Amino acid sequence: MKVCVIGSGGREHALAAALSRTADVVVTPGNPGIPGSVSRPPEEVEADLFVIGPETPLVDGLADRLRAAGDLVFGPGVDGARLEGSKAWMKEVLREAGVPTAAYGTFTDLEPALAFLRTLPGPWVVKTDGLAAGKGVLVTDSLDSATADVAAKLSGAAFGDAGRRVVIEEWLDGPELSLLCVCDGRRAVALAPAQDFKRLSDGDTGPNTGGMGAYSPVPFVGPDVVAEVLERMVQPTLAALTARGIDYRGALYAGIMLTAAGPKMLEYNVRFGDPEAQAVFPRYSSDLAALLAEAAAGCIGTEPQFDDRAAVTVVLATEGYPLDPRSGDVIEGLEKADALPDVTVFRAGVARRGDQWVTAGGRVLDVTGLGTDVAAARATAYDAVSAISWPGMQYRTDIADTVHFPS
Ligand code: AMP
Hints:
alpha+beta; 5-stranded antiparallel β-sheet; 4-stranded parallel β-sheet; binds adenosine monophosphate
């Protein structure tokens, strides 16, 4: 089977690596660090299956265009991608499906938004309705900050049109779970549970980012939790989409808060999580190309299987990330890290300069280590991280540290 992966980051590198165990893979546009990268647009690539990585082309209708041309596509159309393209719409679908989620209000005008904000006890949660590259959510202990954020979002100053509608939510407490699912329109199967780290700095401080690390499996999430999320949350969501005439074939990422009152859905993404994919796919042991092709064709038959070993992924980012990332720094030690056992260094944002690798974008490399358990995988990943350097390189030192596990 020939598979075309669409996208250019670490997630697409991880997808391509897992798919290439059983398929011929090209990646468009990819990047100079991802084998099989081609510069042709997807419409000009011949493939048996197209796997769309990021949300933006999905929201822009790439899956619909490829399907209209007769291609087999893993990724929802514009209708299903709205789950991520509009948080207000997603919350409506959740309500319709009876999926437990945070209480909320949706606003386009300042006064009612602020009035609703003042009815909540805090901390306060303010989200852009539209896509904001994972950076449109503010969670704060300060009512003043929340008030200023609502004003900045609604005025368009903070996130342009994406913020002219906001969703204000009840704050939920608990550990988070990322459950990446594969959907065939009617049925969803879950991949191994993962957890990600969204804040820039150790101890979950600093600004929100696209993600600074991840690990899988999650020691405190058993098969019972996964089954509950699938049965009470993901399947009812698929049914609600079907009732709206939406045939959802693609990845569905459930971002869940494990509250004292049970799992609650924080959000759906319409693609695999990045960097969760870099921790989940190295553990995937069955035929991923077959699974995604079956989902794209509307009939999942393959059950996902995973290596018993754990994986920990540490993201290496440039100076200034996420606000003002610097590019063009020479990366040292990459070959040394590549050569370590049980290590894969996924290329998220790299470029070639002569015979050197240089940084190109905020998140540059995703270093995944495998080990018999999370602690061993963590040690392997951080050993590899210590081999790599460039001026201003930043990363978290507490990814998958047990301090994050509930006692
Ligand atoms: P989202 O993009 O909606 O997943 O939000 C990004 C991050 O903000 C989540 O991973 C949570 O850490 C946090 N968050 C979002 N919604 C809430 C909420 N209602 N209560 C507490 N934290 C939240």
